[in-house]
Design goal:
Helix content: 40-55%
Strand order of the largest sheet: 2-1-3-4-5
Largest sheet: 5 strands, parallel
Distance between the termini: 95 Å
């Protein structure tokens, strides 16, 4: 009987030690949350590697330890169920009795769910960080002041390279065509939103088949639009018709992202008579009219020193090793860079906060305001191969076309 009583006491003491309520604090920790489904192992590994590097760097966070807490929001069902499930996981962060609470959140990964969680994060004064492309609705910083977009997908047409190029050339009449896949649609809607704010006239269309492509090209001709952003997976639908109409060459600029640009050479080898387009036609179009694509380099090099003091190639090998792979994908890179961006924003915020970081409160926005303001100033060189909102602007390159 006495032994049982001792075991009960030990169990109760263990439970009390593992649950912090009220005054339980660990001032040496800064907690950030992440909503990542368990099947996205590449994102999990990338985030963990970034956190490890940050905690090994004594110049970051003034002696605080960065703690990444992940919630598995993997679920199966329609979008409404997925949204409800993800919100329930997010609520676990918000109602966690431990102190300090999370001060920022990474994710989620699905566009429609991002919108729902952004509404919640705004209500709770929580900075939400998105490491990939975002729905256009979340670009409204009045409605979503705490939603931060740190990186664009490498096939996304809306990214810092695109915006810099538009400002550089000052174009005021632009055509935009895209697939209705989420990977293209969200990014293109964001581009159109940005162009509208800059009073740029656009001729836009979703390309689902050859008929859509023909109508789009008709409108380009009617309104004499000669600069076109193209974000479609089946390039032949547009390119072959544009070639047959002579809508390419010295007086035209067709802007195609790096990934789809690579695909055009593959499609060129598959050109058939049904498209009235030959291999030579596609290559002629590609070589004569495409105005730019971004180098996947920094300062013209394939490898460079990252903000963490390691070569980007070595960081990628470390992440790949964690996954038992030989390489990593672009989403892995954007996730790694996003976590570094969060740490750098917190590092810059610490001396400017009105109270110690461990007293962060979801019902007061004074600390979130400081964090989000510092976040928007963050610039650094990460491992991302493409220019993104958080990477060093020297990744921007303009490659002249063969236009005369």
């Amino acid at each position: 009987m006495r032994a049982e009583a001792i075991l009960i006491c030990i169990a109760l003491l263990h439970k009390a030690a593992s649950v912090c309520i009220g005054s339980c604090r660990n001032t040496s920790e800064i907690r950030i949350g992440a909503l990542i489904p368990s099947y996205r192992s590449v994102l999990i590994a990338s985030a963990q590697v970034a956190v490890q590097e940050i905690n090994e760097n004594p110049a970051i966070l003034n002696g605080h330890k960065l703690v990444l807490e992940m919630k598995d929001n993997a679920a199966f069902g329609d979008i409404r169920y997925l949204t409800r499930y993800t919100i329930s996981k997010m609520t676990e962060f918000l109602t966690d009795p431990r102190k300090p609470p999370i001060v920022m959140m990474l994710g989620p990964t699905i566009s429609d769910i991002k919108i729902a969680t952004a509404h919640v994060s705004t209500s709770w004064d929580l900075v939400q960080v998105n490491p990939s492309f975002a729905p256009v609705a979340l670009l409204d910083k009045v409605q979503h002041p705490y939603f931060i977009n740190t990186g664009e997908h490498f096939v996304a047409i809306y990214n810092e390279i695109t915006l810099e190029m538009l400002h550089h050339y000052g174009w005021k009449k632009i055509g935009v065509a895209w697939d209705d896949f989420a990977i293209f649609s969200d990014s293109t809607q964001a581009l159109l939103y940005s162009l509208g704010k800059d009073n740029v006239t656009t001729v836009s269309a979703v390309i689902r088949d050859g008929s859509d492509a023909a109508k789009f090209l008709d409108r380009l001709e009617e309104e004499d639009v000669r600069i076109v952003f193209l974000a479609v997976s089946n390039l032949q639908r547009v390119v072959c018709q544009a070639h047959s109409r002579k809508r390419y060459g010295a007086k035209y600029v067709w802007i195609i992202q790096d990934a789809t640009l690579a695909a055009i050479s593959v499609e060129a080898s598959k050109a058939s008579s049904s498209t009235n387009c030959t291999y030579s036609d596609l290559l002629d179009f590609m070589e004569s009219s495409i105005g730019y694509y971004p180098y996947r380099k920094v300062n013209g090099k394939n490898s460079w020193m990252t903000v963490g003091g390691k070569m980007n190639t070595d960081v990628k090998k470390t992440i790949a090793h964690e996954l038992n792979r030989t390489n990593i994908n672009i989403v892995s890179a954007t996730t790694y860079d996003a976590v570094w961006a969060m740490a750098l924003a917190l590092n810059a915020s610490l001396p400017k906060l009105p109270r110690p970081i461990d007293s962060f409160d979801f019902f007061k926005n004074d600390m979130s305001e400081v964090i989000v303001n510092e976040f928007r100033k963050v610039r650094f060189t990460g491992i991302l191969d493409m220019a993104a909102r958080i990477t060093h602007m020297k990744t921007l390159h303009f490659i002249p076309s063969k236009r005369t």
